[in-house]
Amino acid sequence: MKGGNAAVELAEARVEAERLAGVQRIQAAIRAAVDVTASPFCDCGERIPDARRQAVPNCTRCFDCETFIERQSRRRA
Ligand SMILES: [Zn+2]
């Protein structure tokens, strides 16, 4: 079956564009919220990746430091 596909593709492209715009709006809002709640820098001076700060709100350590400290506290316990 051919014919009419162009209209469908156009509609799908518009839905996809709207979906992406929505995702970008949400990501921008999350980024703005994260930026005011915590410093983007770890104690070691490493910049904490935005993805990590979004996944772990208010995290103050980079992944390496977090892993290191978790390992130490587990050893102590
Ligand atoms: Zn660190």
TrEMBL record:
Residues in Zinc finger DksA/TraR C4-type domain copies: 43-71
Alphabetical keyword list: Metal-binding, Zinc, Zinc-finger
Database matches in Gene3D superfamilies: DksA, coiled-coil domain
The protein's name in its UniProt record: TraR/DksA C4-type zinc finger protein
Origin organism lineage: Bacteria, Pseudomonadati, Pseudomonadota, Alphaproteobacteria, Hyphomicrobiales
